[in-house]
Amino acid sequence: MTSSISPQWAEATEAVEQAASVLIVTHINPDGDAIGSLLGLALTLRARGKKVDAVVDGGVPDFLRFLVGANTVQGKLKRGKWDVMISSDSSDEERAGLAGVYGRKHSARVINLDHHPTNTYFGDIFLVVPEAVSATEIVYLWLEHMGHPLSEPVAIALLTGLVTDTMGFRTNNVKAATMGLAQKLMEAGASLYDITQRTMVSRPFRDLQLLANAFPSIKLQGTIISGVVTQDDLKRAGQHEATDGGLVSQLIAANEAVIAVVFKELADGKVELSFRSKPGFDVGSAAFGLGGGGHKQASGATIDGPLDVAIARVMPLLQAAAAQGLATTA
């Protein structure tokens, strides 16, 4: 991992100002911060007269389609050429999927905008701010540097990322400044109630069905709690996305657990990992060692299967992370 580089606000602003065409991509299996930052940037740059293509492998998840501009996001990328590509909320090149691979090959310059401490500093211009609680916070800071006014649709997109990546302002990296930013976005027209309801409270029945299917797999081994979501679980629940239905967030709530992991079986035979941890326990390093990334308390990776092989590979790493955390907090 490359040492940190101060955010290059002026260089990034100059690059997009000089560009006629801009491509924006974000990470596979996108969450609220991925789509919020993608659309916040797309709406802003279109307002500044740029031709913008916004792409994420598989398109926008259903629960985020309420965001303005969601219908303009492409689910695949097969043609085009751009002056600048912006990779948002992706800690490494692989995380941006096939859209990222094509975009990097067909863009003159790449801006890396991200808040993950595990960022590998790929690209040409860096807006990497590890202390930011979300990628949308970085987008807001960039808008301030540009002197660009905050429209209501952009404020809604940015608050969506802020809410979802802090689990409703419940993560331990939330600061007074985080709440101040939320206030500014609300003053610009974003409804905290509406965004929280849409992204964290309401859910389709198929998510509940998936949880019912996956619950029998839950195990508590020492201080590590785990669950498994198989392709059969997904099909029986009518799910077409590689999701855990919110299982990992429920598992980490167990009093006896300091680390939670969900193993999701993908259609191509690989296994997607979702990690969560209590404060003082670092799962980000384990994710990075597996080729993924994220934060100390929330991270993930995708590794080769089958499931039993993936579980045997990952559990010792999490046991070591739990032991290290316990030694540190003792």
| Multimeric state | single chain
Using the alpha-carbon principal axes, give the shape: globular
Count the DSSP helices: 12
Radius of gyration: 19 Å
The first-to-last residue Cα distance is: 29 Å
Number of strands: 11
Structural class: alpha/beta
CATH level-4 homologous superfamily of the largest domain: inorganic pyrophosphatase (n-terminal core)
Measured as a percent range, the helix fraction is 40-55%
Number of domains: 2
Average of pLDDT: 94
For the biggest sheet, the summary is: 6 strands, mixed
Q: Would you list the SSEs in sequence order as H and E? A: HEHEEHEEHHHHHEEHHEEHEEH
CATH fold-type name of the largest domain: inorganic pyrophosphatase (n-terminal core)
The fraction of residues assigned to DSSP E strands is 15-25%
- Architecture of the largest domain, CATH level 2? Alpha-Beta Complex
Reading off the top of the CATH hierarchy, the class of the largest domain is best stated as Alpha Beta
Sheet with the most strands: spatial strand order? 6-7-8-9-11-10
Low-pLDDT segments, ≥5 res: none
Any overview of this molecule?
The model has no long low-confidence stretch (mean pLDDT 94). The protein has helices at 9-18, 32-47, 97-105, 135-146, 152-165, 176-187, 192-201, 205-214, 231-236, 247-251, 284-289, 307-329, and strands at residues 21-26, 51-55, 82-88, 107-114, 125-128, 219-221, 224-229, 259-265, 271-277, 293-294, 298-303. The protein is an alpha/beta fold. 40% of the residues lie in helices and 18% in strands. It folds into two domains: 9-200, inorganic pyrophosphatase (n-terminal core); 205-329, Diaminopimelate Epimerase, Chain A, domain 1. The strands form two sheets. It has a six-stranded mixed β-sheet with strand order 6-7-8-9-11-10, with helices on both faces. It has a five-stranded parallel β-sheet with strand order 2-1-3-4-5, with helices on both faces.
